[in-house]
Design brief:
By secondary structure, this protein is of the alpha/beta class. It contains 19 helices and ten strands. The strands form two sheets. It has a five-stranded parallel sheet. Strands 7-6-8-9-10 form a five-stranded parallel sheet. Helix 14 links the parallel strand 6 (273-278) and strand 7.
């Protein structure tokens, strides 16, 4: 009886279900090898993937394939030869990027689900009518830039992607919804557009995307799992450690604190502080940083009120620390780049912005949390020549971490759109 039942189950199970199970098992095992269960062990994977690099190169997210700067006296050429890349080339492939970017500008089209100014929730769906500010401004800037870009189409049949224009940040502060009602709001919204329009149903949302910078966006889709699994999530809190984030499907949105005016030219500033960090103690990683370096004369770690302006502290530091807080993301990478300071990223599992395009080790250092006690040794072993190359690339790359309305070539908006462009190949059921 049991064998007959198993036979019936096999006959009724589509062949692709078995393929899916096999692939899931493979990726699970590969992921388990790389990402162990504790955060500190996960940190080691940032710098010690060399053992499995060749076997899993196409499986692992790009940022996790970075290696630490060497702690011995190997030359740059030796290091590059071993890693098969030029450490100081800003792009993975500049020529291909520039050619493909031009094609994107000519062909890529986005359809935004329409909402009127007199809609009950117009404040949630329409762009803000002021200059966004604060930690989560990237979400609002994206929408403002998109609506002013030439990538918009009002003909959905010509669209490569469909934008779900709700604002997680504004939903949080709307008394009719607030943070506890976001999941129900999104569930009802997806239900409405899937009934009113045919576009969601033909791909089950695979050619749709939404944008969120606050961490509330990570759980906003908990009641609509197919959105989480199928739609592209353009989010600031992009962590491999979180099951809701799907590397190479989802896109990392830079968290940028907006600053008005032209970029400063800090190359001639005397940087007499080795490393700098300021922020709240809101994670074990920051607690560890404070325990090890709180009284150090070279690494300035501050968790209280600064005695000097924040901008001056960044300008006077060679390295600026981006340390995981509640989430892997903060605005500190953007801050460091703006003021010409080389970022040091201490945030395990962070899916770094524009990782498909930019070579992060050409303008930053990635240090696993396990190596916090070795931080000074790591920084001191960066030669003057290495540092000069890193800072030169910082000054070149920072234009990619700036918002403009309307958008300008190669700014943050267009870099995010290029990441979406790379994900545009979706099979659709004909309408």
């Amino acid at each position: 009886m049991a064998s007959r039942l198993r036979s019936r189950l096999y006959l009724r199970t589509p062949y692709y279900a078995f393929l899916s199970i096999a692939l899931t098992s493979f990726f699970f095992v590969a992921g388990w090898i790389v990402f162990t269960s504790t955060e500190d062990r996960g940190a080691a994977s940032v710098g010690t993937l060399k053992v499995i690099h060749k076997a899993s190169e196409n499986v692992l997210p790009t940022s996790c394939r970075q290696t630490r700067f060497p702690l011995d006296n190997r030359t740059k050429n030796q290091h590059d030869k071993e890693n098969g890349a030029d450490n100081y080339d800003l792009f993975h492939n500049r020529t291909i990027f520039l050619q493909d970017y031009k094609e994107m500008q000519n062909k890529f089209k986005i359809y935004v689900y329409p909402h009127k100014a007199d809609d009950a929730f117009a404040n949630i769906f329409l762009p803000v009518d002021f200059n966004p500010s604060g930690n989560y401004a990237s979400e609002s800037y994206f929408k403002k830039a998109l609506m002013k870009s030439r990538l918009i189409t009002h003909d959905p049949t010509k669209a490569d992607f469909f934008f779900l224009p709700f604002s997680i940040a504004r939903l949080r502060h709307d008394s009719r919804v607030n943070v506890h009602g976001i999941q129900d709001f999104i569930k009802e919204y997806i239900s409405n557009i899937s009934q009113k329009y045919p576009y969601w149903n033909r791909t089950n949302g695979a050619d749709h995307f939404y944008v969120a910078c606050h961490s509330a966006g990570r759980t906003a889709m908990d009641k609509v799992e197919h959105v989480q699994v199928n739609a592209i999530q353009v989010v600031c809190s992009s962590s491999y450690y979180v099951s809701s984030h799907v590397a190479h499907k989802d896109v990392s949105l830079p968290q940028i604190w907006p600053r008005q005016g032209n970029l400063v030219a800090p190359i001639s500033v005397e940087r007499n502080t080795l490393a700098f960090f300021a922020g709240a103690i809101n994670s074990p990683v920051r607690t560890r940083l404070l325990e090890v370096w709180k009284d150090d004369p070279e690494i300035f770690v501050n968790f209280g009120r600064l005695s000097t302006p924040y901008s001056q502290a960044l300008l006077r530091s060679k390295f600026c620390l981006h340390v995981k807080g509640f989430e892997v993301n903060t605005a500190r990478i953007g801050d460091a780049l703006y003021y010409g300071c080389v970022p040091v990223i201490i945030a395990n599992y962070y899916d770094l912005p524009f990782n498909d395009i930019l070579n992060w080790k050409s303008f930053s250092l990635v240090v696993p949390t396990l190596d916090i006690p070795l931080l000074k040794d790591i920084l001191h072993r960066i030669s003057l020549k290495q540092y000069t190359e890193l800072q030169k690339n910082v000054l070149e790359v920072r234009k990619h971490f700036q918002w403009h309305v309307p958008p300008v070539d190669y700014d943050t908006f267009n870099m995010v759109m290029y990441e979406l462009w790379l994900r545009r190949h979706v099979l659709r059921i004909p309408l």
